[in-house]
Design a protein that fits this description.
- Helix content is about 40%, strand content about 10%.
- By secondary structure, it is an alpha+beta fold.
- The longest helix has 20 residues.
Length: about 210
């Protein structure tokens, strides 16, 4: 997976650049006195709100690679994370598979619904192709197919490969020091048949 792994830092930097480069929607953005700058709230620091970043996000964190936190807003409050879930799905897949591994689409993956790549039952693709569909197109179908494939690779004797993958995701979150994160599926759907307790925090997502 060297090719995929080597692309991760570039992808992360690109996402950061895009977020910073987006024009600020002042009509929907807010600066709060409770926002934290270098560990102390803006109010305690005596920083005027007009000098603070006005952002639309209800939860946010900006952290240096060395762990220094420049800015945070409700960074430890548990929230639904939807398709951000797929970042952990990809991480576990990368750590437990090879780029050339074959991912086979079963009925569950082909019928998961919502945002999908358009895979059909019986389709096959390489893990590298699957990860592209997961992280670029945010496909719920490919997330499910990856989960079944990687879960079976982690524990070939498991009668529930999908469940094995979900456990591996939660175990990995714990290893990374996530304090309030729970994964219940590989794609992040959290309504209808997928309603549950799936959640994380801005700080935990930063760790991931």
């Amino acid at each position: 997976m060297n090719k995929i792994l080597s692309a991760i830092p570039r992808a992360a930097l690109t996402v950061a650049f895009i977020l910073l480069a987006c024009p600020v929607e002042h009509a929907h953005a807010t600066a709060l006195a409770s926002d934290v700058v270098l560990g102390t709230s803006a109010q305690e620091r005596g920083i005027a709100l007009e000098e603070m970043p006005d952002i639309g996000a209800t939860h946010a964190i900006i952290m240096r690679p060395d762990g220094t936190v420049y800015f945070e807003r409700e960074a430890d409050a548990p929230i639904k994370i939807a398709s951000t879930t797929k970042v952990m799905t990809a991480l576990v897949a990368i750590e437990h598979s090879n780029a050339s591994d074959i991912v086979t689409v079963d009925h569950a993956a082909a019928t998961v619904g919502e945002a999908c790549v358009g895979l059909k039952e019986g389709d096959t693709l390489t893990m590298e192709e699957a990860l592209t569909g997961l992280m670029v197109m945010s496909g719920n179908d490919v997330a499910t197919a990856i989960a079944n494939t990687v879960g079976a690779r982690i524990d070939p004797s498991s009668p529930d490969p999908y469940g094995t993958l979900i456990k591996a995701m939660n175990d990995r979150a714990a290893e990374l020091g996530c304090s309030d994160t729970l994964f219940e599926n590989a794609h992040g759907l959290d309504f209808g048949a997928w309603t549950g307790q799936l959640h994380s925090t801005a700080r935990d997502i930063m760790r991931i």
